[in-house]
Amino acid sequence: MQKFPMTAEGLARLTEELRELKVEERPAVIRAIAEARAHGDLSENAEYHAARERQSFIEGRIAELESVIPSVEVIDSTSFSGNKVLFGAHVTVVDEETEQEKTYRIVGQYEADMKNGSISNSSPLAKALIGKKVGDSVEVPAPGGAKVYEIAGVRFV
Fold it and tell me: CATH code for 4-74?
């Protein structure tokens, strides 16, 4: 069975999402389908079709979470220290071309969220960073050509 590395916070978020889907979302969509059915002709009932589509999404997501959660391997990065990039690290990098600085946290694929600065450990950037130390430069393949970043800092929180 494949194991998925994840932080404790990531597992808690997935577990809460599963609970919400089962306890709140699923019953709500079942009620919405029943109400839409009561309006008559289902072939031209947009509310019914939207509710069925939502139900399909919810059931698919529940199935996905129920298969992923038992396969999670929680990695406690708070016990790590040093200047070497490991899973769970907050890594500050500087784009050597633009001098722009960004900080990312390396997490598992099911908790990655670029908007919040979390990148998957299987992403090209994370793969290039893992195992390197502060001061090292890494080259990352990108659609517009390779990007070079210098590791400016590593924190474990």
Answer: 1.10.287.180
